[in-house]
């Protein structure tokens, strides 16, 4: 669902989105498309996309072996997974119609971000698109997470890398927009599992840090869980012909 509303970043108007696939469908054609998701994680959006678009196919690449094993244990038609880093995509030139990077560019080592975007460019067909969705460094959920994992520098680096890609002339900026999306946790245990102990990261969290984060988290806990609004930025780039 998408609806217009007043955003919380600089007073600008943003879109409120409960399912990012709705926005993706509004921006790019997905029917009969061959897509690559770079840093796919659990590939939840890709699985839903394939459920809506019976002629599409997705290849997800993921560097984390544990996440890759989970993905492969839950197979789906027209979806396959490969172990690879964003800066070394194991496919030939012009192999895909579009590419997705969903909250993954800022996880690429900063020194490799430009190379990762160059690799995506290489595997896209002429006129192919890259949809990059990144969390904005703002909001109460961000303030909570930064207690144990401050991503301010890497998120800024991701946007700077995209800026350089467009400035190079090899990419065309097709769209740039903000939206807000809801995030809910049933309880602190779910928050800790999803946010503090993901398979791809080790934040060196000790018991004292867990207690500190729990104390702040509990300010948001209600009868139906803790609810947050996460501000996001989407940039749609197209490969220059």
- Write down the overall mean pLDDT: 93
CATH architecture: 3-Layer(aba) Sandwich
The whole-angstrom Rg is 18 Å
What is the 3D form? globular
Relative helix content: 25-40%
CATH superfamily: Vaccinia Virus protein VP39
Total DSSP E strands: 10
Low-confidence stretches: 4-11
Classification by helices and strands: alpha/beta
Tally of domains: 1
The CATH class designation is: Alpha Beta
Instruction: Write the H/E string, N to C.
Output: EEHEHEHEEHEHHEHHEE
Give me the number of helical elements: 8
Largest sheet composition: 10 strands, mixed
End-to-end gap = 33 Å
Summarize, please:
32% of the residues lie in helices and 32% in strands.
Please give a structural write-up.
With 241 residues, this protein is α/β, with parallel strands linked by helices. The protein contains 8 helices and 10 strands. Strands 1, 2, 3, 4, 5, 6, 7, 8, 9 and 10 form a 10-stranded mixed beta sheet that branches. α4 (113-123) links the parallel β6 and β7 (124-135).
């Amino acid at each position: 669902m998408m609806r217009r509303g007043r955003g919380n970043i600089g007073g600008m108007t943003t879109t409120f989105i409960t399912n990012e696939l709705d926005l993706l469908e509004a921006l790019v054609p997905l029917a009969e498309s061959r897509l690559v998701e770079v840093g796919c994680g659990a590939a939840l959006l890709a699985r839903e996309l394939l459920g809506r678009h019976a002629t599409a196919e997705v290849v997800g690449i993921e560097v984390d072996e544990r996440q890759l094993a989970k993905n492969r244990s839950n197979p789906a038609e027209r979806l396959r997974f490969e172990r690879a880093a964003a800066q070394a995509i194991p496919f030939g030139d012009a192999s895909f119609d579009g590419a997705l990077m969903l909250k993954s560019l800022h996880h690429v080592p900063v020194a490799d971000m430009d190379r990762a975007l160059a690799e995506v460019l290489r595997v896209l067909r002429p006129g192919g698109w890259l949809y990059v969705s990144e969390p904005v460094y703002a909001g109460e959920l961000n303030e909570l997470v930064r207690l144990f994992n401050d991503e301010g520098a890497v998120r800024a680096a991701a946007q700077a890398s995209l800026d350089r890609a467009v400035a190079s002339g090899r990419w065309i900026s097709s769209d740039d927009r903000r939206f807000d999306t809801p995030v809910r946790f049933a309880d602190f245990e779910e928050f800790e599992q999803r946010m503090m102990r993901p398979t791809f990261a080790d934040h060196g969290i000790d018991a004292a840090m867990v207690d500190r984060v729990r104390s702040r988290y509990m300010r948001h806990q209600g009868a139906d869980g803790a609810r947050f609004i996460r501000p996001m930025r989407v940039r749609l780039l197209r490969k220059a012909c």
